[in-house]
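Take a record:
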Amino acid sequence: MQRRTMLGGAAGAICSALAFASRANAEERPSMPELTGPPTAGPYDVTFPEHPLRLRYGSCGEARLTASHIGRIVPELESFMSDPAPSFPGYTVLAARHGVVVEHRAGGHKLRYESWDEATKTAVELPEDQWEEAEKDTVYDLASISKLFTATVTGHFIDEGLIDLKSPVVEYLPDFDSSDPEKSPITLGHLLCHTSGMIAFINLYDKPDEQARMEAIYAYPLRRPPGSGYEYSDLNLIVLGKVLEAVAGQPLDELVTEIICEPLGLKDTGYNPSEAGRTAATEFQPWTGRGMVRGEVHDENAWAFGGVAGHAGVFATAWDLAVFGQMILNGGRYRGAEILSESTARLVFTDQNAGMGESAARGLGWQLGQRWYMDAMSSPVTVGHTGYTGTSIVLDPLAGTLLVLLTNRVHPTRNWGTASAYRRAASRPMGRAVPVRPRSGEYAWFAGQADDATATLTAVLPTASLDAEASFALWYDTEATDVAALEASPDGEAWTPVPLDLRTEDHHWETDGRFSGFSGRQWIKAGAQVPDGTMFLRWRYTADPAYQGRGVYVDKVKVREGRAVVHDGSALVADGWELVRDLRSTAAGARSARRGGPSGRRPPGRRPAAPGGRRTRRSAPARRACTAWCCGRTRGRGL
């Protein structure tokens, strides 16, 4: 591979910082003062296994997942396949935890339609004997998930000292600002974080050649100054792909093959697949003269680039994409190959767009904490990406879970179906399947995960309260707009919030009785002064119509007047809440009988016990600042 070395002062500084973070892995976290506000999680709460995990098939018990919830994934997906306008005709899904694959199935069809009649908005089906079923090894057009492969090659080049994300694009592509000098300040980091200021999309497939296509990108006006805001743009990754090619002196498809696919053993991953019959058909595109697209990239601009571009063009099976995802969860390593250094892999989980809004959260090419498709798998360090053809990958490093969903949503048209409801339908049971260990005993109260619903759990006191105090254990992980509260009432009709005092080992905060969001996935000690005259004390959880987190749990309820316990939590009235025993993995609803064992994520900031006694590589100290290569800011991890 022909490459030229480019390691200037800024690049050297980045590499030094990365090396320091790597050396710091073995350090113990310093003792922390009590902090105000709920716990959260950051890139240094992500731990990588000492020995990289390899994917293998196993049971929910081995993965420490609740089988009944894993068993919901496929039925939930297939509910989106009904006529007359299915969200997708075919799919392959793969779910794993700690490298143990507990679900890998396919359904529907990889080919069903001949064309699309735009005039009547009708799908024209092939004769039924020509339909082809989707299979576990069906090859799908990943669409924008291809950007993750471009980002990974970028990270690999960082490790080799070949590029510097703080350097201007013009250092690598001298013509980049030739038509628009305002593009001069754009850096490689801006491209990777989608903060360059370039527009999301322009038609390039009608341009006569590659030079004309690139000149069109170079000439199109910016929508905002570089680094001043976020806008997801295909143009960013097209340009970044050209940078990588210029640095290496090789085409992007060769770089992806040599740096990622061959070391990881991804035999079914790459651009321009050779076996069209194994691929899932995508869209009927008469405007490109291709008819029903199959075995060629769906994206028109990537097709114009010969099927190879930084923003789209990669095809893969669910298994291959899962291996790619597990490599990231392993800290850049898999089956003896190191694709990324640990420090560069940690950049995947580091938000470089802080302050630009939740939808802008990005690490090394990956999105962070996007509930619109991650749903209950979401956390501040959950990463993933989607593809326009109906693909997605989600990695939750705190739980060690991985979910790959590949569909041919655009077959036969992009105008059918839903955008991401089906993605959430798979992510929600996957997140729910990770057990929450009760604070005591085997059961805890759970508020459920129903959208657009209110659930209540009520304690009826024997007499009107006088100088009473309530205590209970609380665990919550919700969307910010899905709010829970402790409320009191003298008559069961009028309710008022009861202020809460909340504590963990190293955090202390107070609320007006309401709480929502992410709280470190750990049990919280909650206390409250019950208003005098209270007869009813309830926990209320109200969810909006959209997304969910892993939910709200309550345990160890006690109401005391002085030393006397007036309510011990043994008789609570539930409406929408249920007593759950997450630690018992049942086979109900699962494809095959699976038995599970105890589990539970330890709070971020404490070293987790890995399955089978595996040791984990330590992260850097809690307060170590990370370098934001897009804007130069530094941030602690916030825990």
In short: The first strand starts at residue 35 and ends at 36. Residues 42 and 637 are 5 Å apart (CA to CA).
